[in-house]
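DM from R.C. (forwarded with permission)

"hey, sorry to bug you on a friday — could you get me a structure for this? deadline for the figure draft is monday and I only need the backbone to look sensible"
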Amino acid sequence: MFRPITEVAHDLGVATENLEPYGRDKAKVRLAALGEAAEARAPGKLILVSAITPTPAGEGKTTTSIGLAQGLSRIGKRSALALRQPSMGPVFGRKGGATGGGASKVEPSNTINLQFTGDFHAITAAHNLLAAAIDNGLHFGSLDLDPRRVSWKRALDMNDRSLRRVVIGLGGPGQGVPRETGFDITAASEVMAILCLADSPADLRARLERILIGFAKGGRPVLAGETGVVGSMAAILSEALMPNLVQTTESTPAFIHGGPFANIAHGCNSVLATRMALAHADFAVTEAGFAFDLGGEKFFDLKCRSAGLNPAAIVLVATVRALKMHGGSALASLQESDPGAVERGLVNLAAHLDAAAHFGKPIVVAVNRFANDTDEETAVVVRYCASRGVACAPADVFGAGGAGAIELAERVVEAASAPETAFQPLYPLDWSPERKIERIAQSMYGAAGVMIAPAAAAQLKKATALGYASLPICMAKTQDSLSDNPKLRGRPTGFTLTVRDVEIAAGAGFLVALTGDIVRMPGLPERPAALGIDVDQDGRVVGLK
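My reply, with the result:
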C-alpha cells in the first residue's frame, strides 16, 4: 500500500490548500503552488532523460527515469519526476502501458495508464468542440470558411486507422455540410501541444485563439478565435491544466501531465509539471519521447526555447538489446549473448552522443540492464564511453529500483554540478523554415541533404506569407531509425530526408514537417494488447503491461 498522496505532497512542500485529491493516491496541484515555492526556495536542476534508437519493445527510458529519481532520493537528494501521461492508444495497441516497470514504476499504474484524472478526455472534448463549432458555422453560414480548406480534424484517444479519412455531413438536408475530414489521435492534437506548452491560463487561452482552422474562400486565414468557442474550450481545460501528482514505488513524488507523442508531436510533458518539479525539488528528472533525434531535439528547440528552461545534464539510455539490433543481430536472437553485435551497434550510440553534444550539456550514458545481459556485453558499452570521455553507469532499475541506480545518480549529480552553460538551441528562429529543417536533418539524423516535396514547398511558402516563418520546426519522423526509413538501423549515412508535407500549428507555436509514412492516427496491430486486459472478480484491472 502506498502513502496517502497528501503525505507525499506535504513532504514535497505543497500546501494542503493547493492540493485537489482524486481519492487517496493522486491529486491535482493548483498553479498557486508555483509562486509559493518560488518564494520559499531556489529552483532545482533539470535532468533530461533521452535514449538511443529503440527496438520495437522500447528500452525502458521511463523505467530508467523513475529509477534515477529514486536513486537520487537514496543518496540524499530531494528529487521529483516530471513525466508524460500515457495515451490509451498504445496502451491497448502494441506498446502497452507507460508507467515504468518492476521496482521502478509510478503508481497507481493501472489508473494512470487508463483514464487517470480525465485530462486526455478534456483535451479530446475541447478539440472536438472546436470541430463541432466549425461545422455548425458552415451549416448556418455564420463562419467565413471554405469547407474544402478546413484543416481542423477531430480527435480520439484510441488507435483507429479507419478514422484517418472520413466523410461527414451525409444524410441529406439538415445534416450539415458534406466534406472530407479525419481524426487525429489525442496525443497528436494541437490542443495537447498547447496545454503542454502553456505556462498559465492566460497563455492557454491566447494559444487556443491562435489555432489556424482553415482558410476563407478568398484565401484569408481563419483562426479558432473567430468561432466564439475558445472560452468554452478553456473552461473544459481549466482543471486539466493543473499538473497531476502521484508517487513511485519508493514514494518519490512524480508529476504526470500531458502526453504528446515524439514521432508525430513534440514528445514532452507539460511545462507546468516540469516547473512544479523544479520548484519543489533539488533535482527534477524528466524525459522526452523516443530517442534523442526526436524527443531530445524537440525538448530543447521547442519546449526549453518556449519556456525558458535550461537543463543541467542529459542522460542517454542505452541497452545491450538495442545495440545488438543496430549491430545486425536478428530480432529473434537479441536474447542471446553477442558482444560483437554490441560493438557494431555502438554506431547508433555514437550518433546520439554526437547529436546531444550540439546542445552543450554534460552527458551521462545509462546502460539499462535486462536479465539476459551479460557482464561482457555491458562492459563493451562502458569501455566505449570511457574512450570518449563520457560518464557511464550500468543500472538495474527494473529489478532493484533506486538501489540499482545509485551509481547512475552519483554520475548525474557530478555532471549537473558542472558550471551552468547558456541555453544553446540548434538553430536561430530567424532562419528560413527550409534551413531549419536542413539543420535538424543533418545534425540530428546524419542526412546528406533534404528534399522538400512540392506539397510541402507550397505549405512553407504559405506559412512564410502568413508570418509563420519564424516558428521552430517539429519534425514528424519514424522512431525506428535515425533516417526517415524505419528499416535502416545503426547509423545510416548518405540518405536524403524527404519532407512530404507541412502543417501550421500556430497555437502551439511551431511548423510540423511530415516525413515518411508517419500518420497522426495510428492503427492497432493484428494482436493488440487490448486482447489481454480484463477485470478480475475483485474489480481489479489485470493484464495491463
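R.C.: lifesaver. The mean pLDDT is 96.
me: no worries. DSSP finds 18 helices and 24 strands in the chain.
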